[in-house]
Every structure is written in structure tokens, then in C-alpha cells.
What does this fold into?
Amino acid sequence: MVFKPIVLVAGLAFATAVSAQFDPQGSQVTSYFPQVADGGSASQHWITSLTFVNPNATLSVTGTVNFYANNGSALALDFGAGPVTSFPIAIPPQGTVVFTTIGAPESVAIGWAVATSNLPVQGVVQYRYSVNGVPQQGVSALATEASALFRSPASSTTGVAIANPSLSALGVKIAALDPSGVTVTSNTVTLGPLGHGSFTLSQVLTGLPANFRGTVIVSTTAPNTYAVAWTLSTDLGVLASYPPSALNWPISQYERISKVWQKVLGVAAANYPLGTAPRLVIDPSVGQINSFASTSLNEVHIFMNMAELISDSESELAFVLGHELGHIIQTASGGLQFSSNTERDADGYGLQLALGAGYDPYGGGGALAKLAMASSTPTLINPGFDNIQANLGTDPHSSFLDRLGVIFQSLQSVCLLPQNQALCGMYKATVHSHFPLNAPL
Ligand SMILES: [Zn+2]
It folds into this structure.
């Protein structure tokens, strides 16, 4: 196999260079709103507002919002232009869009909403109710992530909303724990595909003492299933929001992977002729740690076990996904850019795409070191899976150690490229401001 010589693509403008940034909390590509309420009688009349903010300084957001009723069917709501079950959103860089229901239904319409977008957006939902036309109370909450586990402060009157983001039936266990951490009582609720339910804790947990105070845990009953949940304090008859209760790492790996993927893919698509955007496949199989790119299927596969190996760092995840995207770019562009070795070249893409998406390229060293650590144990990793030994023909050592040995040089090379110099400088000034002056970033 003949490799093309290293080609530094001068003039490759990193369109997102100045927008490298970290996402604000609550910023997701799939934003779940576990409760919407609209209309009702004059004695308790509800409206719901959805606000979306695009935190990106240079890129526009496009997306879609869908509404579902308790039974999972499409829910029509009127935002002023007639009832709709979904609508598109388009948000300019750093822009905001707000959608507010008009409260048309005579009996209150209850359900939930899912917003999907090409880039992470910050989503906020507000609920307000009025009595005989006089506004009474309102509460707002951040869009939540899907998770296998939620935990929130609770009393017997705490409101709980749950939803099923999947197309299969979902079992959800709701448990009340007293201040000593002892389970007082629990119940299991089954939601149909895209189904939803909302209730007070005492409604779903019969026998819960009226003076109960402690925590509520909402968890899915089967492995690799995810729910959407939200809690609302109604103590003393006053609505008050609780913070998002989804437990993040390592519970919501799917959302983490897809968020990092969207950002890295966005940088790749803005700078390389990818054609049809590759599809991400997240594989929950239990087995040897792996990720790979299929250029024939135009897919990047990442196994959950790979995400779990590097699960404490989205920067390491960005490097791995960028590496696999690099293989797609190698095929699309018909050559190598950073190295005459396929794997090291893909590592160059991993560093560059992670940097462009606002992640720390030093995560490349972290990911390779963890893979090297695991690769001496065949029960963890297939030693030959990325074939660098075959490519080099001579290297008897772990391919990950070999790549780890040159990753800092690769980082220096990436930052020497004219199109990356400003970004490396900005990243160093803001994130690594105490590094030695001669560090590349
Ligand atoms: Zn590779």
C-alpha cells in the first residue's frame, strides 16, 4: 500500500475557530421537556413557553420540536398560528426564539416535548397559570437529558413528570427514601412508546405518609433504557422548581456521546468535503473495547465500553470520535494529511477536530494512554484491532503506546498549521493560561 506524502492543506479555514467554547449547562442536541400544560378552565388556566438559545457565536441552529400526549400520540398545541404537533426552529448565532401556547383548550392539555437540533441549544420551559384571568404562579426549568436515574428532594406533594423517549415500552421505578436513606415505599409505572405521566408523589405511592420528606429516585427497570423525569415542589401550595435531577456521568452516556459527536461532526463538515454526513452508531454490546469507522456504510461506530473507558472526559471522547471521522475524511479526500501512517493521520484529525469543537486536545493523550493500559489485556481489547502493527510492519509493541509516543509531536504539528495557530493561541490563553510560554497550546 502506497501512502501519499504528507500534505498540509494551506488555506483550510477553520470556520468554527473563533467559536470554540464550552457549552452552558442544559445545552443539548436532544432537549427533553418532561411536561407541557396548556389551557383549562378559568379557575386554573395554564400556558407553557419554550425558549431556545443558540450559544454558538458563529453557527446557526436548525431543529424541530415535537409534542406528545400521555399515550405517546402526537399532541396538538396552538402557539398562535393554529394547532400543531411539531414545528421547526431556526436560531441565528447567539440568538433566541420563544414559543408560547395561547391556552386554547377548555380542558387542560397535558403532555411533553422533545427538541432536536444540529448543534447544542439551551432550552428553558416556563409554566404559568392564572385564575379568572389573573396570573398566579409560574415556574421554569432547564431542558433535561434522558437518563437511567434521577434523584431529587421530595415531599408527599412533590409533582413528578416522567416520559419515555423510546419506541418501546418502558418500566420506571419510583421510590421514596426517608432522610436516613431507607426506602419508605416504591412503585413501578409502565409507559408506552413516547408515553408520559404526571402525578404527585402520594398519588403514585399509595401509603406514603402525608408528612413524608426525603428524596425520590426515578430509575428505569431494564438495562440500557432511559427515561425523562422532572420534579416540582408544591410545598405550601407554592410552585418551586428543583434543579435538573438527571444523574450525569456515567448514567447518561448516550446524550454525552451524541452531544460530542454533533460538535465534532459540525467542525468536520464545515472544513472537509464529507458529502452526506456520516451516521453515528452507539453499540451497547458487552465485549472487547472498540470504536471504528465504516467508510462503505459512512458510519462511525462507538461501543459503550469505549465511552465507559474514557467516560470522565468529553475531550477524550471528542478525540476518539474525531479519529474515526478522520478515517471517513481520509477516504473522502483520497489521501492523508498529518502522517504517512493511517492511524497517526487519523489521530491528527482527532486532535484538530476536538480543538475546533472546543475540547482539550490533550485528551488525545488521555484516551491513548487508557487504551494502552487496557491493550495488554486481550479480555479488554483485541490487540490488533486498529492494525497499526500491520501498517508499520515492524512494530512489535502496543500500537497505542506507539501512537502515544508521538501524540505531543502531532499536537505541535497541528498547532503549527497556519489555519490552527489563532485557535491554539486562544485555547492556550483561556484554558491553559498557566502553561509554559513555549507550549503549543
Ligand atoms: Zn483508526
Notes: Residues 1-22 have pLDDT under 50 and may be disordered. The pocket of zinc ion is lined by residues 323, 327, 343, 346, 386 (CB under 6 Å).
